[in-house]
Amino acid sequence: MGPLVPDIISSELNYIIALIVGIGFGFALEQAGFASTKKLVGLFYGYDFTVLRVFFTAGITAMVGVVVLNHLGLLDISIIYINPTFLWSALIGGGIMGFGFIIGGFCPGTSACAAATGRVDGMAFLLGSVIGIFAFAEGYPLWKDIYTAENWGPVLMYDQLGMSREGFGLVMILIAAGAFVATTMIENKINGKETKWFKPVIIKNSILVATPLLIVLIVIITPTKREVMDKRIDEKIAAGECNPKIMEGDKLAYELMNQYYKYNVIDVRSPEEFQKFHIPTAINIPLEEMHKSGSLGTIIQNIKTNVFYGADSMQSQRACMVSKYFGKSDNFALELTAEEFNKQYFLITDIDPHGTKQEVDIQNFRIEAGKKMKEIGEAVANMDKPVMKKATRVSGGCS
């Protein structure tokens, strides 16, 4: 499952959903009072921490959801884009944003919300944002160097702290709980109220904190979908049940020469190894990525027969087991490794004059098969390229 766009939701429908979600988000902001500068700047003056509670809660909820969906194999977080960290841009931009928030009382999103409700200050703030965008774009050459300085790439906090993703999630939940308690006490003190912790409130808040903690703890102690699959396959291998069908190199070469369209040749090595050499018509799905939803759509189909090969026989045989685990039974493991196939069909040049007739016939077949497979591979690759129409100049007429 996922990404939602375009796998599940079409790109066109995505715009409609985005519009509906945007309207709903704006409505929620307005109902929460975020169209008022008094509510927003209360965060900085200490008399109202609604902004912190709302956005911290939203962040924790999203974090727990991502952790759970990733654990269940329903979300591939490796395809989630992470904005690169440009240190000086973050520091200077954060400072400008902070001062603008304190002075103007809005952030860009809440200013749009305020403007939509007819507030003049929101409109003025939004106009200033537009002017700032144009000023930044026009003056970009002046601050390009500092804007792109200290590029740290996609930085992840749990990597920097040497923690697991789930462990960092637990820490963030506890920090959020502590922040909510501390800000409640500060808020009451600024507003001249006495902080009282009644038993029903304590019980309710404890449940609210314990629920995400328990969910993340369950994620930590239970195996992932990939771990369950690997364990079951290892058990079958240990029990001697790993007996995939083996296809000889000459058999695959013959089939590719005559009916390549019936076979799904899958290279389970790394992309780097695949680029150095791969069997013509083959596609690259690394062994460690076969369980992902994007790969399963190619593997689990009823039209072609899968033929797996890799850097060694264990890779191709394990790939067969993974494919069978997910329901595809028509699989073969290539007898040869990628390197052996390359030597046997593409690097062979001379025929042994002292060999038997059968050996000479086999060598001739392999030389011809190598040439034919290259031709087929190039033809298949060109099928995916757009047809380029050559422009011709029209001549004739009156000169």
TrEMBL record:
<dbReference type="InterPro" id="IPR007272">
    <property type="entry name" value="Sulf_transp_TsuA/YedE"/>
</dbReference>
<feature type="transmembrane region" description="Helical">
    <location>
        <begin position="12"/>
        <end position="29"/>
    </location>
</feature>
<protein>
    <submittedName>
        <fullName>Rhodanese-like domain-containing protein</fullName>
    </submittedName>
</protein>
<keyword id="KW-1133">Transmembrane helix</keyword>
<feature type="transmembrane region" description="Helical">
    <location>
        <begin position="207"/>
        <end position="224"/>
    </location>
</feature>
<dbReference type="Pfam" id="PF04143">
    <property type="entry name" value="Sulf_transp"/>
</dbReference>
<feature type="domain" description="Rhodanese">
    <location>
        <begin position="259"/>
        <end position="345"/>
    </location>
</feature>
<keyword id="KW-0812">Transmembrane</keyword>
<feature type="transmembrane region" description="Helical">
    <location>
        <begin position="86"/>
        <end position="108"/>
    </location>
</feature>
<dbReference type="InterPro" id="IPR036873">
    <property type="entry name" value="Rhodanese-like_dom_sf"/>
</dbReference>
<dbReference type="Pfam" id="PF00581">
    <property type="entry name" value="Rhodanese"/>
</dbReference>
<keyword id="KW-0472">Membrane</keyword>
<dbReference type="InterPro" id="IPR001763">
    <property type="entry name" value="Rhodanese-like_dom"/>
</dbReference>
<feature type="transmembrane region" description="Helical">
    <location>
        <begin position="120"/>
        <end position="137"/>
    </location>
</feature>
<feature type="transmembrane region" description="Helical">
    <location>
        <begin position="167"/>
        <end position="186"/>
    </location>
</feature>
<feature type="transmembrane region" description="Helical">
    <location>
        <begin position="50"/>
        <end position="74"/>
    </location>
</feature>
